[in-house]
């Protein structure tokens, strides 16, 4: 089948690789423009662009696809490329741009989206993070026939995946990316036979984009809630607290039963087994930490170079910004 592919991060690159391995012809790949990243803020190509170039595929990076938007020349150029490609279908995965109606209408069989949730739960930008943060016990991938709404199209295929108690966003991402790649190949192979099922009106939730300010730990919350947020915010933006005037990232933690009379944020114990901190309900044991400018370290190694001791308050003072 001749398909265009639109995607940007590693999640999408996994799907593109599977499509190529399945023998699909991909005359055009759309991906986000190169962005500055890293400490040097050098322009970096997306995972999808790197893979596409490695396979000798044509790549376009329009800043917008709206013909009446801020970058009409970019949109017009993309329109010519898509129309000239003679597409059977278009596959979209974590692209990052809204597809206007003219894009949806261009391929003969429309546009299919690989979405990392069990729709209609967690429509939107960050379904993996929000599922972990909310304490969901399962998630999955939905292959959807796209329409003009935000993840509102008819469902073609869906498969569930359990969320393990220790899954963070990075690990769950990799599982869902593999599942998405397999499902889209299956969907294209059976596209004319698949039944289109409208999404139910009940159970709709929105996975809003993760913002940096959400990283700051509120120690008055229950330990269970904080443990989920630590896992949800790994690898981005990383859960953050303050140790005196320094920022301190928390990369791994789990809730312990029992209560403490100490004020929330108080260090109760600092040992090789982790740093136990009082919360609004229960105790959170921190097992992987990172000082500003340092490396992610297990608690044993972290405590060798950190002055963290019982009675100290985390989050009480610190810089006004989140880095």
UniProtKB/TrEMBL annotation:
Catalysed reaction equations from the record: L-methionyl-tRNA(fMet) + (6R)-10-formyltetrahydrofolate = N-formyl-L-methionyl-tRNA(fMet) + (6S)-5,6,7,8-tetrahydrofolate + H(+)
Protein origin, superkingdom: Bacteria
Keywords: Protein biosynthesis, Transferase
InterPro entries cross-referenced by the UniProt entry: Fmt, Formyl_trans_C, Formyl_trans_C_sf, Formyl_transf_N, Formyl_transf_N_sf, Formyl_transferase-like_C_sf, GART_AS, Met-tRNA-FMT_C
Domain (Formyl transferase C-terminal): residue spans on this chain: 209-306
EC number(s) stated in the UniProt entry for this protein: 2.1.2.9
Binding-site residues, (6S)-5,6,7,8-tetrahydrofolate: 117-120
A GO MF term: methionyl-tRNA formyltransferase activity
Domain Formyl transferase N-terminal: 1-188
Protein biosynthesis keyword on record: yes
Keyword Protein biosynthesis carried by entry: yes
Enzyme class at the top of the EC tree: transferase
Functional summary from the UniProt entry: Attaches a formyl group to the free amino group of methionyl-tRNA(fMet). The formyl group appears to play a dual role in the initiator identity of N-formylmethionyl-tRNA by promoting its recognition by IF2 and preventing the misappropriation of this tRNA by the elongation apparatus.
Family: Belongs to the Fmt family.
Matches recorded under NCBIfam families: fmt
HAMAP family per the UniProt record, alphabetical: Formyl_trans (MF_00182)
Protein name, entry field: Methionyl-tRNA formyltransferase
Organism: Hydrogenophaga atypica
């Amino acid at each position: 089948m001749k398909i265009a592919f639109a995607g940007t991060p590693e999640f999408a690159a996994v799907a593109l690789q599977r499509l190529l391995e399945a023998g699909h012809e991909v005359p055009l790949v759309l991906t986000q423009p190169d962005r500055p990243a890293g400490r040097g803020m050098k322009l970096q190509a997306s995972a999808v662009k790197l893979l596409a170039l490695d396979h000798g595929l044509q790549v376009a990076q329009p800043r917008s696809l709206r013909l009446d938007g801020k970058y009409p020349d970019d949109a017009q150029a993309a329109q010519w490329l898509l129309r000239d490609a003679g597409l059977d279908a278009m596959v979209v995965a974590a692209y990052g741009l809204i597809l206007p109606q003219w894009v949806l209408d261009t391929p003969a069989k429309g546009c299919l989206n690989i979405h990392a949730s069990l729709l209609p739960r967690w429509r939107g930008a960050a379904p993996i993070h929000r599922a972990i943060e909310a304490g969901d016990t399962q998630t999955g991938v939905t292959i959807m026939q796209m329409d003009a709404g935000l993840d509102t199209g008819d469902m073609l295929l869906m498969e569930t995946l359990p969320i393990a108690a220790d899954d963070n966003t990075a690990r769950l991402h990799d599982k869902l990316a593999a599942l998405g790649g397999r499902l889209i190949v299956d969907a294209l192979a059976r596209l004319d036979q698949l039944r289109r099922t409208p999404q139910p009106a009940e159970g709709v939730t929105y996975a809003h984009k993760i913002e940096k300010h959400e990283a700051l730990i509120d120690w008055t919350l229950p330990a269970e809630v904080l443990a989920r947020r630590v896992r949800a915010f790994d690898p981005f933006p990383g859960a953050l607290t303050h140790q005196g005037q320094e920022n301190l990232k928390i990369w791994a933690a789990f809730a312990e039963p029992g209560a403490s009379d100490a004020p929330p944020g108080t260090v109760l114990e600092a040992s090789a087994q982790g740093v136990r901190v009082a919360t609004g309900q229960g105790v959170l044991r921190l097992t992987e930490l990172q000082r500003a400018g340092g490396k992610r370290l297990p608690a044993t190694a972290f405590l060798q170079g950190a002055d963290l001791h019982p009675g100290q308050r985390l989050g009480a003072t610190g810089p006004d910004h989140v880095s």
